[in-house]
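REQUEST FORM: STRUCTURE PREDICTION
Request ID: SP-0412
Submitted by: Lab K.M.
Chain count: 1
Length (residues): 355
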Amino acid sequence: MSEQHIDSIRLRPGMYMGDIHDGSAIAHMIWEAVANSVDEHLAGHCTQVTVTIEEDASVSVEDDGRGVPVHDVAGIPFAQRALTEFHNSPTLDGHAPHEHIASSGLGLLPVNALSSWLELTTFRDGGHYVQRYERGRPTAPLERIEPTGRTGTRLRFHPDPSIFGGVWFDPGQIATHLRELSFLLPKLTLRFTDRRQHSFHEPLGLASYVRTRLRSGIGPELPMFTLVVGVGDIVVEVAATWGPAWGGSLESFANVQRTTGGGTHVRGLLLGLVDGLRKATPTSKRRKQLEGALTEGLVAAVCVRLNDPTYDSPTKSILSTPRVTGVVRRAVREGFEHFLAREPAVLAYLRNKID
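STATUS: Completed
RESULT:
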């Protein structure tokens, strides 16, 4: 086992599994586990693969193949080497054919290293074997539980919340990819079950939404500007902060309708932010220059609630209600000016951006 490799993977998970914030890294962990079952199928030894998201947000991948080998290799069970070592060939045992259905093709070591716990169950050579790992390291030797005539492998793992934050799987994405595999592997049956109970409640509203969009861990941790204010018959809600220049995101809604093309509420937000900044700190920069600086790395969401909104297209992708621009602009200008007076760190950060 390479302690250095495990520590390196946990320190820089994105290098091995992809983005840890948008769910793609967790998806790649699943596909690395599924890839081993697909290899068994391609070798003629597996007809069924079952992927299950358990109630505790762990994932199990189970197949009816030959089972992971358990014989010793240089004094270490093959199964343990598969979970704790990189391999220099396409597969650890050099078998073929082999398919990389995950983008990394690095095997099971990154899956193990990035899991708070992992349990391997293998049915092989007349025995039922189990071994548990925590953060990439075995907690006990591979144990033979009982004799059995069954064959196959079950890998169950829990992506580490300390790395991934709130563990979230997109069941639609998983089901879509498994169905795609079924077209390519017509003799293989793939099953998918999600045993979680889904309940959603976000009392912080757009602030929570923006947090999910913010790529954390890079750049300053800035306080978030939030605003909820009623102006006549229009309610304006805003949440905004700044992250890396390449990680900007501006989402907008009218009532509960997502407006992918923006519109008058987005224009009002940007104008209000510029106005509020100008009130908080004098500058000779032109409006377009200020707007460009403010939108770089801006991670924000704006929602307006109003009666009878109007849109520029049948898809309701662009809000066009004219008076919304002025209402949002005035509300954001006042709120943002007061926010910057309370948060000198944000003001200093924005001053640096426009200088």
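NOTES: The longest strand covers residues 115-124.
Reviewed by: T.R.
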